[in-house]
Amino acid sequence: MKLLLARLQNRSLALPLASVERVILRPRLEVLPDLPVWLAGFLQLPGESLPVLDVEALFEGHRCPWGLYNPIVIIRDERNLALLFTAVDGLVDVPPEEFRPLQPEDSFQGVAAALIPRSQEWAPILVPRLLLVAQEQRKLDHWSDVLGRRLEGLG
Q1: Domain limits of the chain?
Q2: pLDDT confidence of 119, banded at 50, 70, 90?
Q3: 3-state secondary structure of 102
Q4: More confident residue, 155 or 89
Q5: Which CATH number fits the domain 2-154, given the four candidates 3.40.605.10, 2.40.50.180, 3.30.470.30, 3.50.50.60?
Q6: Cβ-Cβ contacts under 8 Å for 44 (sequence gap 6 or more)
Q7: Closest among 88, 55, 57 to 71, alpha carbons compared
């Protein structure tokens, strides 16, 4: 399976390449007052506004240190999202027999399907559609509506 390796500080994570549309360096984001800590802002693309999830805030409770070159990974699956990481380390092709399956209670807060071996650690394979719980999805929908109304008012 082809995977994109990303990093939060010193922790490696993997995303199925089939879910990844592209990786871009952190552009300017639309940021609204009082956004939840896990919502870095919105990426404005032609014809759409993508929410950018701060993956470190989702898992660690504090924002990813922002820099000029933080990568944003655009995900296209059941939910169109963008994910903010500390770094992207490249692509790997890992045969399924090297995966270490996870039980739901051991699955990196319920969003990892398996672990893959890395040099000094095991990296969880994230399932993008599971990143947000229902309550977070409702908040995201609310903030998307707020941004839409704000942008309509500017037009």
Answers
A1: 2-154
A2: confident
A3: coil
A4: 89
A5: 2.40.50.180
A6: 30
A7: 88
Question: What is the per-residue pLDDT across 56-110, written as a single tens digit (0 to 9) for each?
Answer: 888 877 787 777 778 999 998 767 899 999 999 999 999 999 999 887 666 667 7
Place of tokens 């037009």: 155
DSSP classification of residue 19: G
What is the CB-side half-sphere exposure of residue 47 using CA atoms within 13 A? 0
**Whether 74 contacts 82, CB under 8 Å:** yes
Which secondary-structure segment (H or E) carries 42?
Answer: strand 39-45
Joined tokens for residue 141:
């929908």
pTM of the model: 0.85
